[in-house]
Design a protein that fits this description.
This protein is of the alpha/beta class. It has a single domain (about 15-110, about 155-225), classed as 3-Layer(aba) Sandwich (Rossmann fold). Helix content is about 35%, strand content about 15%. The chain contains 9 helices and 6 strands; from the N terminus they run βαβαβαβααααβαβα. A 6-stranded parallel β-sheet has the order 2-1-3-4-5-6, sandwiched between helices. Strand 3, helix 3 and strand 4 (about 95-105) form a beta-alpha-beta unit. The chain is globular, with a radius of gyration of 17 Å.
Length: about 230
């Protein structure tokens, strides 16, 4: 947990998933929120997005909101594969989420870790054989087809969030070979719009990198929807 010198009224906080300490553009932007009284909390779920990882996030949420008086609604943010655990938790706890911000996030497991490595994925993404194998194992699938047909991707978990009115901001690269825009963010946007949800997509000229040169749109989005 990264703590401000003085918490803002209501003790707002930002939940983060994996890799935060490794990416200066991301953590430096978050530290601007810390300067404004937000806490930043790193509470990891399952790296494959399996629901068993929710227990860890639940424990952090319960501790912070009951013992430390944090806001009952948190802003949620992720990038890359950390997006899997974000939507797994948020989709069963939509009433606890103020907003969701995703930066080059995995929204469709057929695209990553499946990619063109897996026959039938219809993906042009590079994929990751080790992670695909790990995902099958954690879900108990014995064939590629089982995972391809399973609704375990963030794009499959949007209805509860749309019903709760949770706004989503996506930042993505138009040249991302690992998590292609067309197979991830574009699908997320189309499905959330169809469900009546509020979603905005910012497309940058980059590959699978994270953090914006000017994070103002993300910071303003988080602050706008903080309750």
């Amino acid at each position: 947990m990264i703590c401000p010198k003085q918490a803002a009224p209501g003790k707002p906080w930002l939940w983060r998933s994996l890799f935060w300490d490794q990416l200066a553009k991301v953590n430096e932007a978050d530290l601007q929120l810390v300067e404004q009284g937000y806490h930043v909390v790193l509470a990891f779920g399952d790296v494959h997005g399996h629901p068993k990882g929710n227990a860890n996030i639940d424990a952090a949420y319960e501790l912070l909101t009951t013992e430390y008086g944090f806001s009952r609604k948190c802003s949620m943010a992720s990038f890359s594969r950390g997006t899997l655990s974000l939507f797994t938790w948020a989709s069963v706890n939509p009433e606890k989420v103020s907003s969701i911000n995703v930066d080059n996030g995995v929204c469709n497991v057929d695209s990553w870790p499946g990619g063109k490595l897996v026959a039938g994925s219809d993906s042009v993404g590079s994929g990751d054989a080790r992670s695909w194998k790990g995902m099958k194992a954690v879900y108990g699938f014995t064939s590629d087809q089982e995972l391809l047909e399973a609704e375990v991707s963030p794009i499959d978990k949007l209805e509860p969030l749309a019903r709760a009115g949770v706004p989503i901001l996506m930042v993505c690269g138009n040249n991302d070979a690992a998590v292609p825009y067309e197979e991830n963010d574009a699908l997320m946007e189309a499905r959330y719009n169809k469900l009546g949800g509020s979603i905005e997509v910012i497309i940058e000229n980059k590959g699978h990198t994270h953090g914006m040169d000017d994070p103002t749109p993300v910071l303003e989005f988080i602050k706008q929807h903080t309750r």
